[in-house]
Amino acid sequence: MANSPSGDSVTDRLVRILETFTPTRTAQTTADIGRRAGLPSSSAHRIVNELVDAGLLERDDERRVRVGMRLWELATRSSHALRLRQAALPYMERVQQRVREHTQLAILEQDEALFLERLSAPDSGANITRVAGRLPLHASSSGLVLLAFAPHDLQERVLAGPLARVTADTIVDPAALRRTLAEIRTLGRVVAPGYVDEVSTGVAVPVRDETGAVIAALSAVLPRDAETQFALVELHRAARDTERALGYRR
Protein backbone atom coordinates (compact mmCIF):
# COMPACT_ATOMS: atom_id res chain seq x y z
CA MET A 1 0.00 0.00 0.00
CA ALA A 2 1.31 3.44 -0.90
CA ASN A 3 1.94 5.85 1.89
CA SER A 4 0.76 9.43 2.24
CA PRO A 5 3.27 12.27 2.72
CA SER A 6 2.77 11.80 6.47
CA GLY A 7 3.79 8.14 6.24
CA ASP A 8 0.28 6.73 6.78
CA SER A 9 -0.66 3.79 4.57
CA VAL A 10 -3.87 3.76 2.54
CA THR A 11 -5.17 0.99 4.78
CA ASP A 12 -4.44 3.01 7.92
CA ARG A 13 -6.35 6.00 6.57
CA LEU A 14 -9.32 3.87 5.51
CA VAL A 15 -9.50 2.24 8.93
CA ARG A 16 -9.31 5.59 10.70
CA ILE A 17 -12.19 6.90 8.60
CA LEU A 18 -14.37 3.87 9.30
CA GLU A 19 -13.53 3.99 13.00
CA THR A 20 -15.03 7.48 13.27
CA PHE A 21 -18.46 5.81 13.09
CA THR A 22 -19.81 4.54 16.40
CA PRO A 23 -23.14 3.09 17.62
CA THR A 24 -24.18 6.63 18.61
CA ARG A 25 -22.47 8.49 15.76
CA THR A 26 -24.01 6.95 12.67
CA ALA A 27 -24.01 9.99 10.34
CA GLN A 28 -21.33 12.66 9.93
CA THR A 29 -20.20 15.34 7.57
CA THR A 30 -17.04 14.68 5.59
CA ALA A 31 -15.37 17.54 7.45
CA ASP A 32 -16.16 15.88 10.79
CA ILE A 33 -14.87 12.54 9.52
CA GLY A 34 -11.60 14.14 8.45
CA ARG A 35 -11.19 15.91 11.78
CA ARG A 36 -11.89 12.79 13.82
CA ALA A 37 -9.64 10.67 11.62
CA GLY A 38 -6.84 13.22 11.80
CA LEU A 39 -6.71 13.67 8.03
CA PRO A 40 -6.26 16.78 5.89
CA SER A 41 -9.55 18.01 4.43
CA SER A 42 -8.53 17.21 0.85
CA SER A 43 -7.55 13.64 1.74
CA ALA A 44 -10.73 13.07 3.74
CA HIS A 45 -12.95 14.30 0.91
CA ARG A 46 -11.10 12.19 -1.68
CA ILE A 47 -11.17 8.97 0.35
CA VAL A 48 -14.79 9.43 1.47
CA ASN A 49 -15.84 10.05 -2.14
CA GLU A 50 -14.05 6.88 -3.24
CA LEU A 51 -15.72 4.87 -0.46
CA VAL A 52 -19.12 6.29 -1.42
CA ASP A 53 -18.51 5.36 -5.07
CA ALA A 54 -17.66 1.81 -3.94
CA GLY A 55 -20.82 1.59 -1.81
CA LEU A 56 -18.89 1.18 1.44
CA LEU A 57 -20.21 4.55 2.61
CA GLU A 58 -23.34 6.39 1.50
CA ARG A 59 -24.78 9.89 1.75
CA ASP A 60 -28.21 10.66 3.14
CA ASP A 61 -30.62 13.40 2.06
CA GLU A 62 -28.75 15.93 4.21
CA ARG A 63 -25.43 15.04 2.55
CA ARG A 64 -24.17 13.43 5.71
CA VAL A 65 -22.17 10.23 5.36
CA ARG A 66 -23.25 6.85 6.75
CA VAL A 67 -21.88 3.32 6.64
CA GLY A 68 -23.11 1.74 3.39
CA MET A 69 -25.02 -1.49 2.95
CA ARG A 70 -22.18 -2.81 0.79
CA LEU A 71 -19.83 -2.71 3.79
CA TRP A 72 -22.39 -4.58 5.89
CA GLU A 73 -22.82 -7.16 3.12
CA LEU A 74 -19.10 -7.81 2.82
CA ALA A 75 -18.64 -7.94 6.59
CA THR A 76 -21.31 -10.58 7.07
CA ARG A 77 -20.17 -12.98 4.34
CA SER A 78 -18.80 -16.14 5.97
CA SER A 79 -18.69 -14.22 9.24
CA HIS A 80 -17.93 -16.27 12.34
CA ALA A 81 -19.71 -13.65 14.42
CA LEU A 82 -22.82 -13.88 12.25
CA ARG A 83 -22.87 -17.69 12.53
CA LEU A 84 -22.53 -17.41 16.29
CA ARG A 85 -25.31 -14.83 16.52
CA GLN A 86 -27.63 -16.93 14.36
CA ALA A 87 -26.99 -20.00 16.49
CA ALA A 88 -27.56 -18.15 19.76
CA LEU A 89 -30.52 -15.97 18.82
CA PRO A 90 -33.38 -18.50 19.32
CA TYR A 91 -32.08 -19.36 22.78
CA MET A 92 -31.47 -15.73 23.67
CA GLU A 93 -35.11 -15.07 22.77
CA ARG A 94 -36.14 -17.82 25.17
CA VAL A 95 -34.04 -16.31 27.97
CA GLN A 96 -35.44 -12.87 27.30
CA GLN A 97 -39.03 -14.14 27.33
CA ARG A 98 -38.53 -15.99 30.61
CA VAL A 99 -36.29 -13.56 32.47
CA ARG A 100 -37.91 -10.42 30.99
CA GLU A 101 -34.67 -8.46 31.18
CA HIS A 102 -31.90 -7.56 28.74
CA THR A 103 -30.20 -10.61 27.20
CA GLN A 104 -26.86 -10.14 25.43
CA LEU A 105 -24.22 -11.94 23.38
CA ALA A 106 -20.62 -10.73 23.41
CA ILE A 107 -17.26 -11.81 22.02
CA LEU A 108 -13.67 -10.86 22.77
CA GLU A 109 -12.40 -8.26 20.30
CA GLN A 110 -9.23 -6.21 20.72
CA ASP A 111 -9.14 -6.48 24.53
CA GLU A 112 -12.79 -5.46 24.91
CA ALA A 113 -16.20 -7.11 25.01
CA LEU A 114 -17.92 -6.51 21.67
CA PHE A 115 -21.70 -7.04 21.75
CA LEU A 116 -23.19 -8.88 18.78
CA GLU A 117 -26.79 -8.85 19.97
CA ARG A 118 -29.06 -7.47 22.69
CA LEU A 119 -32.70 -8.34 23.27
CA SER A 120 -34.86 -6.23 25.57
CA ALA A 121 -38.42 -6.16 26.82
CA PRO A 122 -40.31 -2.83 26.95
CA ASP A 123 -40.13 -2.88 30.75
CA SER A 124 -36.49 -4.00 31.02
CA GLY A 125 -34.33 -1.99 33.40
CA ALA A 126 -31.36 0.25 32.73
CA ASN A 127 -28.65 -0.94 30.32
CA ILE A 128 -25.83 0.96 28.63
CA THR A 129 -24.97 -1.83 26.18
CA ARG A 130 -25.58 -1.37 22.46
CA VAL A 131 -25.31 -3.80 19.56
CA ALA A 132 -21.84 -3.30 18.05
CA GLY A 133 -20.91 -1.44 21.23
CA ARG A 134 -18.00 -2.28 23.50
CA LEU A 135 -17.42 -2.48 27.25
CA PRO A 136 -14.22 -2.98 29.27
CA LEU A 137 -13.39 -6.59 30.07
CA HIS A 138 -12.84 -5.96 33.78
CA ALA A 139 -16.04 -3.96 34.31
CA SER A 140 -18.77 -5.94 32.53
CA SER A 141 -20.12 -9.40 33.36
CA SER A 142 -19.64 -10.56 29.76
CA GLY A 143 -16.16 -9.08 29.72
CA LEU A 144 -15.18 -10.85 32.93
CA VAL A 145 -16.23 -14.22 31.52
CA LEU A 146 -14.32 -13.58 28.31
CA LEU A 147 -11.27 -12.41 30.24
CA ALA A 148 -11.34 -15.38 32.61
CA PHE A 149 -10.97 -17.81 29.70
CA ALA A 150 -8.77 -15.60 27.51
CA PRO A 151 -5.13 -16.40 26.69
CA HIS A 152 -2.74 -15.85 29.57
CA ASP A 153 -0.87 -12.98 27.94
CA LEU A 154 -4.10 -11.04 27.39
CA GLN A 155 -5.10 -11.58 31.02
CA GLU A 156 -1.75 -10.32 32.22
CA ARG A 157 -1.95 -7.30 29.93
CA VAL A 158 -5.35 -6.34 31.37
CA LEU A 159 -4.25 -7.04 34.94
CA ALA A 160 -1.24 -4.77 34.41
CA GLY A 161 -3.74 -1.96 33.97
CA PRO A 162 -4.80 0.66 34.10
CA LEU A 163 -8.17 -0.66 35.29
CA ALA A 164 -10.64 2.18 34.79
CA ARG A 165 -13.21 2.69 37.53
CA VAL A 166 -16.58 2.82 35.74
CA THR A 167 -18.60 2.85 38.99
CA ALA A 168 -17.75 2.70 42.67
CA ASP A 169 -18.14 -1.10 42.52
CA THR A 170 -15.92 -1.78 39.49
CA ILE A 171 -13.02 -4.09 40.33
CA VAL A 172 -9.89 -1.98 39.90
CA ASP A 173 -7.51 -3.88 42.20
CA PRO A 174 -5.45 -6.38 40.15
CA ALA A 175 -5.26 -8.92 42.97
CA ALA A 176 -9.04 -8.82 43.47
CA LEU A 177 -9.58 -9.13 39.72
CA ARG A 178 -7.24 -12.11 39.55
CA ARG A 179 -9.24 -13.85 42.31
CA THR A 180 -12.50 -13.08 40.51
CA LEU A 181 -11.22 -14.56 37.25
CA ALA A 182 -10.14 -17.75 39.05
CA GLU A 183 -13.60 -18.01 40.63
CA ILE A 184 -15.27 -17.61 37.23
CA ARG A 185 -13.18 -20.44 35.78
CA THR A 186 -14.19 -22.65 38.72
CA LEU A 187 -17.90 -21.79 38.80
CA GLY A 188 -18.50 -21.15 35.11
CA ARG A 189 -20.42 -17.94 35.73
CA VAL A 190 -20.17 -14.45 37.17
CA VAL A 191 -22.45 -12.12 39.11
CA ALA A 192 -21.36 -8.49 38.79
CA PRO A 193 -23.49 -6.11 40.89
CA GLY A 194 -23.02 -2.48 39.90
CA TYR A 195 -19.72 -3.03 38.09
CA VAL A 196 -20.64 -1.11 34.93
CA ASP A 197 -23.94 0.52 35.98
CA GLU A 198 -24.77 1.28 39.59
CA VAL A 199 -28.45 0.33 39.27
CA SER A 200 -27.89 -3.02 37.53
CA THR A 201 -26.40 -6.45 38.13
CA GLY A 202 -24.85 -8.29 35.21
CA VAL A 203 -24.77 -12.08 35.15
CA ALA A 204 -22.93 -14.03 32.46
CA VAL A 205 -21.86 -17.53 31.41
CA PRO A 206 -19.44 -18.82 28.75
CA VAL A 207 -20.26 -20.29 25.34
CA ARG A 208 -17.80 -22.84 23.93
CA ASP A 209 -16.97 -24.03 20.43
CA GLU A 210 -16.48 -27.61 19.20
CA THR A 211 -12.99 -27.68 20.74
CA GLY A 212 -14.22 -26.57 24.15
CA ALA A 213 -12.66 -23.11 23.88
CA VAL A 214 -14.74 -20.19 25.14
CA ILE A 215 -15.82 -18.10 22.15
CA ALA A 216 -18.53 -15.88 23.62
CA ALA A 217 -20.42 -14.84 26.72
CA LEU A 218 -24.18 -14.87 27.22
CA SER A 219 -25.39 -12.38 29.78
CA ALA A 220 -28.45 -10.79 31.32
CA VAL A 221 -28.73 -7.37 32.91
CA LEU A 222 -30.97 -7.40 35.97
CA PRO A 223 -32.07 -4.75 38.46
CA ARG A 224 -29.38 -4.28 41.12
CA ASP A 225 -31.11 -6.21 43.91
CA ALA A 226 -32.79 -8.87 41.75
CA GLU A 227 -32.41 -12.58 42.44
CA THR A 228 -29.85 -13.99 40.00
CA GLN A 229 -30.13 -17.78 40.13
CA PHE A 230 -33.07 -18.14 37.74
CA ALA A 231 -31.36 -15.98 35.12
CA LEU A 232 -28.14 -17.96 35.46
CA VAL A 233 -29.97 -21.26 34.99
CA GLU A 234 -31.63 -19.92 31.85
CA LEU A 235 -28.33 -18.56 30.53
CA HIS A 236 -26.54 -21.86 31.11
CA ARG A 237 -29.33 -23.67 29.28
CA ALA A 238 -29.13 -21.21 26.39
CA ALA A 239 -25.34 -21.53 26.24
CA ARG A 240 -25.53 -25.34 26.03
CA ASP A 241 -28.20 -25.16 23.32
CA THR A 242 -26.10 -22.66 21.37
CA GLU A 243 -23.09 -24.94 21.62
CA ARG A 244 -25.10 -27.87 20.27
CA ALA A 245 -26.34 -25.68 17.43
CA LEU A 246 -22.70 -24.88 16.61
CA GLY A 247 -21.80 -28.58 16.63
CA TYR A 248 -20.18 -28.84 20.06
CA ARG A 249 -21.07 -32.00 21.99
CA ARG A 250 -20.02 -32.52 25.57
Give a nutshell description of this structure.
This protein has 250 residues and is α+β, with helices and mostly antiparallel strands.
Proportion of helical residues:
40-55%
Number of strands: 8
Instruction: Write down the overall mean pLDDT.
Output: 90
Shape call: globular
| Structural class assignment | alpha+beta
What integer value in Å does the Rg equal? 20 Å
Strand order, sheet with most strands: 5-4-3-8-7-6
Task: Give, in order, the helices and strands.
Answer: HHHEEHHEEEHHHEEEH
Main sheet attributes: strand count, strand direction, barrel closure: 6 strands, antiparallel
Percent of residues in β-strands: 15-25%
| N- to C-terminal distance | 46 Å
Poorly predicted segments: none
Q: Helix count?
A: 9
Strand and helix layout:
Elements: H1 10-18, H2 30-37, H3 41-53, E1 57-59, E2 65-67, H4 69-76, H5 80-99, E3 102-109, E4 112-119, E5 134-136, H6 141-148, H7 152-159, H8 174-187, E6 190-193, E7 200-208, E8 214-223, H9 229-245
Helix pairs in contact: 2-3, 5-9, 6-8
Describe this structure in words.
The protein has about 250 residues and is α+β, with helices and mostly antiparallel strands. It contains nine helices and eight strands. It has helices at about 10-20, 30-35, 40-55, 70-75, 80-100, 140-150, 150-160, 175-185, 230-245; strands at about 55-60, 65, 100-110, 110-120, 135, 190-195, 200-210, 215-225. It has a six-stranded antiparallel β-sheet with strand order 5-4-3-8-7-6, with helices on both faces. β1 (about 55-60) and β2 (about 65) form a beta hairpin. α2 (about 30-35) crosses α3 (about 40-55), α5 packs antiparallel against α9 (about 230-245) and α6 packs across α8 (about 175-185).
